[in-house]
């Protein structure tokens, strides 16, 4: 478990730690601040391209082998990013990082959930909260310290010792797992998903700044929707699909996947909106903003530790609903605070958001795969992570668009707090929507262990999602 947590923590933190260094990179490379956006876009597009294929690669070539190769590529790419001397080379190495990051999460998660029985997965989920939720929160803090105390390449160099240790530790202790019925490579599905998801990620990332009605965004976004739609139809008719959408026929997995995507959209939305609000409307520095946001990570850690006690008191379903209600209310409170408020009020509210939302994230992770058999775990974790990645991209795109539209209404006044307050209220709506979805599942379906499981059919992958009695 320690290998996966270290690797995933490194990859998840990389998504936010780089943002703090972008202004410095812009100055050193003598490029416009807008041009640095390609550093993140290349990473996200590459991740979206390789994420869907991760399940098949793990099943076909072995989860240990694929995981370690991805970890090695990510670590080497991090070193090369730090050595880059111009934007083109930095973008190229970030694309390599994204490709490796797209494989690390689902393959590592499949390894963990194959190892532990459903009744043991709450312990796994409590540990996974570190890379999934805490790493993005502390990224800006560590990034700010590294940029101010050393230089921007260190936001990449920091990955090297962790990647080196995780690789050799995994080489010695991880067990290999292959699926005999992995099937042949779905080249048609890969090409459709690559074009579709890459186009969607590009449109979602550039839409708020370029404008949703611009010809570029409309054409690329429309192309992405078209290819993704064709991809889904093709996958449903393919004998050995790259993404097994038939897994969504299980109501528990389907509902928990959507709830998880909404939670990720809310969590990353907070980490996106609050620093902008605190710096632009409250006049704080990037480091001050990161330190004020950090209590949310502390709340997430504490939630992961006390979740078993909370579950015994009110059950898994109660924990999920309590977490969603509490975190949504805290976001509403955060949106109502005036600019004269003490920083400690922000810290206490963000700590409470982490405490409440941490309960929900851990519980959802623990029960999402209850009905999935070990043979299908790689495909299930891949589909689950695709949902989360799209959920976060859509969520941030919506919040960014709201901020942009409201700032236009205020004649481009970035110091006005109102656009950010509205965005925080919309983020709370993501969580309230997730709360409504919890009522699709009966209370008994939340509990562990399960008596029903997906089993692999001898005839085809499309039939392996029938429920065994």
The helix content, as a percent range, equals over 70%
The CA-CA distance between the termini, in Å, is: 32 Å
Radius of gyration: 21 Å
Per CATH, the superfamily of the largest domain is MFS general substrate transporter like domains
The total of beta strands comes to: 0
CATH topology of the largest domain: Growth Hormone, Chain: A
User: Could you say how many structural domains there are in total?
Assistant: 3
Task: Report low-confidence residues grouped into runs of 5 or more.
Answer: 448-469
Encode the helix/strand succession as letters.
HHHHHHHHHHHHHHH
CATH class of the largest domain: Mainly Alpha
Topology:
Blueprint: H1 2-29, H2 37-50, H3 54-61, H4 63-83, H5 87-115, H6 121-149, H7 154-157, H8 159-173, H9 187-210, H10 215-237, H11 251-280, H12 286-335, H13 343-367, H14 377-409, H15 418-437
Helix pairs in contact: 1-5, 1-6, 1-8, 2-5, 2-9, 3-4, 3-14, 4-5, 4-8, 5-14, 6-12, 6-13, 9-10, 9-14, 11-12, 11-13, 11-14, 11-15, 12-13, 12-15, 14-15
Q: Can you tell me about this structure?
A:
75% of the residues lie in helices and 0% in strands. The chain has 469 residues and is mainly α. It has 3 domains: 1-185, MFS general substrate transporter like domains (Growth Hormone, Chain: A); 187-237; 249-469, Up-down Bundle (Growth Hormone, Chain: A), CATH 1.20.1250.20. Helix 1 runs parallel beside helix 6 (121-149), helix 2 packs parallel to helix 5 (87-115) and helix 6 (121-149) packs antiparallel against helix 13 (343-367). The radius of gyration is 21 Å and the shape is globular.
């Amino acid at each position: 478990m320690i290998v996966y947590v270290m690797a995933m923590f490194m990859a998840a933190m990389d998504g936010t730690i780089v943002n703090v260094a972008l202004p410095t990179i812009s100055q050193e490379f003598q490029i416009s601040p807008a041009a640095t956006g390609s550093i993140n876009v290349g990473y996200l597009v590459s991740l979206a391209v390789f994420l869907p294929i991760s399940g098949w690669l793990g099943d076909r070539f072995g989860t240990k082998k694929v995981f370690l190769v991805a970890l090695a590529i990510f670590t080497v790419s991090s070193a090369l990013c730090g050595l880059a001397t111009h934007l083109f080379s930095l973008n190229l190495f970030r694309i390599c990082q994204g490709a490796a990051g797209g494989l690390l999460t689902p393959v590592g998660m499949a390894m963990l959930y194959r190892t532990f029985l459903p009744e043991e997965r709450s312990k796994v989920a409590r540990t996974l909260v570190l890379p999934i939720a805490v790493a993005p929160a502390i990224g800006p803090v560590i990034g700010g310290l590294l940029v101010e105390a050393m230089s921007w390449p260190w936001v990449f160099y920091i990955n090297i010792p962790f990647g080196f240790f995780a690789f050799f530790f995994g080489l010695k202790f991880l067990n290999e797992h292959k699926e005999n019925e992995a099937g042949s490579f779905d080249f048609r599905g890969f090409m459709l998903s690559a074009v579709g998801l890459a186009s969607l990620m590009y449109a979602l990332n550039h839409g708020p700044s370029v404008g949703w009605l611009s010809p570029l965004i409309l054409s690329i976004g429309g192309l992405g929707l078209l290819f993704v739609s064709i991809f889904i139809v093709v996958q449903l008719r393919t004998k050995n699909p790259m993404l097994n959408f038939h897994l969504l026929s299980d109501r528990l997995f389907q509902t928990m996947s959507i709830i998880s995507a909404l939670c990720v959209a809310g969590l990353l939305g907070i980490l996106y909106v609050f620093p902008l609000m605190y710096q632009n409307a409250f006049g704080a520095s990037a480091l001050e903003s990161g330190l004020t946001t950090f209590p949310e990570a502390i709340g997430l850690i504490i939630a992961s530790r006390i979740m078993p006690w909370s579950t015994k008191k009110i059950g898994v379903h109660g924990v999920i609903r309590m977490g969603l209600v509490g975190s949504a209310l805290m976001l509403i409170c955060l949106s109502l605070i005036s600019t004269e408020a003490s920083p400690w009020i922000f810290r206490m509210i963000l700590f409470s958001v982490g405490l409440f939302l941490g309960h929900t994230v851990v519980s959802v992770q623990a029960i999402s795969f209850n009905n999935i058999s070990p043979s299908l775990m790689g495909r299930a974790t891949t589909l689950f992570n695709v949902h989360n990645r799209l959920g976060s991209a859509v969520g941030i795109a919506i919040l960014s668009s709201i901020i942009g539209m409201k700032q236009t209404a205020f004649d481009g006044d970035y110091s006005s707090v109102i656009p950010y307050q509205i965005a925080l209220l919309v983020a709370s709506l993501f969580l309230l929507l997730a709360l409504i979805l919890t009522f699709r599942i009966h209370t008994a379906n939340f509990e562990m262990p399960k008596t029903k499981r997906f089993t692999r059919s001898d005839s085809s992958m499309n039939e392996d999602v029938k429920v065994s009695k």
